[in-house]
């Protein structure tokens, strides 16, 4: 049995919103396995969010922008430890400088970004210098989308960045989709895009939860499996972008809205990076 620390419990609380005692029990029951503890909480009926495609940092500045031709989008997150630093205009400008360098140098990875030189100094050295001057841990993170057309969106004072790839130039649609993604946080574009391991995990949680329900006692496995598939279908409807209700017009789905703009337009992918 691995030792469960207060830091472990706090990390699980921040990730799930569950109570301290529930988090302690979840970690104890799963021998300290973080992902297993999340699943354990969900099986106990805790309202824990499904695993998302966005990457989270506690504090920092997030910049989302595209190349001039809108064929490549970048989300750059310069993370820090406190909102005192992240809300400072100088730190925001620092993050913008690095984001501009990412676009100008067409970087593909965070390692490439760290190696970029700005006025003779690499981004990695700039970050180390900033760390030394403010006394907080700072790091750069990068997400990228390539498509025939990419829309970008920054939400909430640099606290979230979204990129959406489309097969056709459609600026207004791209903005609408980016705002949808920011608000509704889908896990994938459509059911086919949901990773197999995510579907397997959801199905296992659903089945285990039903088996614990006294109302399902004695029900045949075939019935449980059929109900589980219905719940998986509901998961796809709620958690995939094109199947979600369109936030600007709840009478239609996002997929319906995309088709109304252009029958041949497809959403290729999206990235959503949020401070947590």
Topology of helices and strands:
Elements: H1 6-16, H2 20-29, H3 34-43, E1 55-57, E2 59-66, E3 72-80, H4 83-86, H5 89-104, H6 110-115, E4 117-118, E5 121-122, H7 123-134, E6 139-146, E7 149-155, E8 160-166, H8 171-184, H9 196-212, H10 221-239, E9 245-246, E10 249-253, H11 254-261, E11 267-275
Parallel strand pairs: 1-11
Antiparallel strand pairs: 2-3, 3-6, 4-5, 7-8, 8-11, 9-10
Helix pairs in contact: 1-2, 2-3, 9-10
Gist?
This protein has 276 residues and is α+β, with helices and mostly antiparallel strands.
Please explain how this structure is put together.
This protein has helices spanning 6-16, 20-29, 34-43, 83-86, 89-104, 110-115, 123-134, 171-184, 196-212, 221-239, 254-261; strands at 55-57, 59-66, 72-80, 117-118, 121-122, 139-146, 149-155, 160-166, 245-246, 249-253, 267-275. The radius of gyration is 21 Å and the shape is flat. β9 and β10 (249-253) form a beta hairpin. The mean pLDDT is 90. Among the domains are: 1-49, Ubiquitin-associated (UBA) domain (Helicase, Ruva Protein, domain 3, Orthogonal Bundle), CATH 1.10.8.10; 56-166 and 271-275, Tetrahydropterin Synthase, Chain A, CATH 3.30.479. It contains eleven helices and eleven strands. It is α+β, with helices and mostly antiparallel strands and 276 residues long. Strands 1-11-8-7 form a four-stranded mixed beta sheet, covered by helices on one side. Helices cover 46% and strands 22% of the residues. α1 (6-16) packs across α2, α2 crosses α3 and α9 crosses α10.
């Amino acid at each position: 049995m691995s030792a469960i620390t207060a830091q472990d419990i706090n990390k699980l609380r921040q990730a799930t919103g569950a109570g301290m005692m529930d988090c302690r029990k979840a970690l104890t029951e799963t021998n300290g396995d973080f992902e297993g503890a999340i699943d354990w909480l969900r099986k106990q009926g805790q309202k824990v969010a499904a695993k998302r495609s966005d990457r989270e940092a506690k504090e920092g500045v997030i910049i989302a922008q595209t190349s001039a031709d809108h064929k490549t989008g970048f989300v750059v997150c310069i993370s820090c430890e406190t909102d005192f630093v992240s809300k400072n205009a100088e730190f925001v400008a620092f993050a913008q400088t690095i984001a501009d360098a990412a676009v100008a140098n067409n970087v593909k990875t965070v390692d490439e970004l760290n190696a970029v030189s700005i006025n003779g100094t690499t981004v990695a050295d700039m970050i180390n210098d900033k760390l030394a001057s403010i006394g907080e841990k700072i790091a750069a993170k990068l997400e990228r989308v390539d498509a025939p057309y990419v829309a970008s969106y920054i939400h909430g004072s640099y606290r979230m960045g979204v990129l959406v790839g489309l097969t056709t130039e459609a600026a207004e649609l791209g903005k609408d989709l980016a705002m949808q993604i920011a608000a509704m946080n889908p896990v994938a574009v459509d059911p086919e895009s949901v990773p197999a391991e995510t579907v397997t995990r959801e199905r296992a949680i659903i089945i285990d939860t039903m088996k614990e329900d006294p109302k399902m006692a004695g029900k045949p496995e075939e019935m449980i499996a059929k109900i589980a598939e219905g719940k998986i279908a509901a998961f796809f409807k709620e958690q995939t972008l094109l199947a979600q209700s369109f936030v600007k017009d709840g009478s239609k789905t996002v997929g319906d809205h995309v088709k109304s703009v252009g029958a041949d337009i497809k959403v290729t992918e999206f990235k959503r990076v949020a401070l947590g």
